[in-house]
Amino acid sequence: xxxxxxxxxTDGPIPGDYSxxxxxxxxxxxxxxxxxxxxxxxxxxxxxxxxxxVSTHTREETMGFDxxxxxxxAFKIWISSVSKDRPIFISDNNGFDxxxxxxxxxxxxxxxxxxxxxxxxxxLYKGITKDTFQTFKHLRKTAHTHHPVDxxxxxxxxxxxxxxxxxxKIKLS
Length: 173
Known about the structure:
The chain has 173 residues and is α/β, with parallel strands linked by helices. It has one domain: Nucleotidyltransferase, domain 5 (2-Layer Sandwich), CATH 3.30.420.10. 39% of the residues lie in helices and 17% in strands. It has 6 helices and 5 strands. Strands 3-2-1-4-5 form a 5-stranded mixed sheet. The chain starts with a strand and ends in a 7-residue tail after the last helix. The mean pLDDT is 97. GO terms for molecular function: nucleic acid binding. Pfam families: Rv2179c-like.
């Protein structure tokens, strides 16, 4: 299975009413050398300035981003190129990230190459440590910058550390 770490940046709390403005994905392997980055033109007139500010982009900049359907098609092709079999979606906050990626795939392409499930990195770490108050974030090497590829890479590094030092049994591509 190909584990693909994903991070999204948005201009609001839910897809449809608000927009996913960028996302990054990293194939989880020992090298962390395969990534995807997409910037998407907003699909709605609605946006929350504070939510958009997290990404460091202005509304004016996002209006020049790429067509969402083209970006999602390119992402689907990338997923196929790095996955020999079923791709597994994993993220720091899969409740949020998955919601946007799944909605955009279904809305623009009519399908989601990840299927109907996702994995949560934080929950995995809590299970390994047997402590629901623990966080994995200290395991990141790459700084959490809110550039989605940086953030996905840092989360992938944390997952690899769980494999190497904490006994996590996981088969990587």
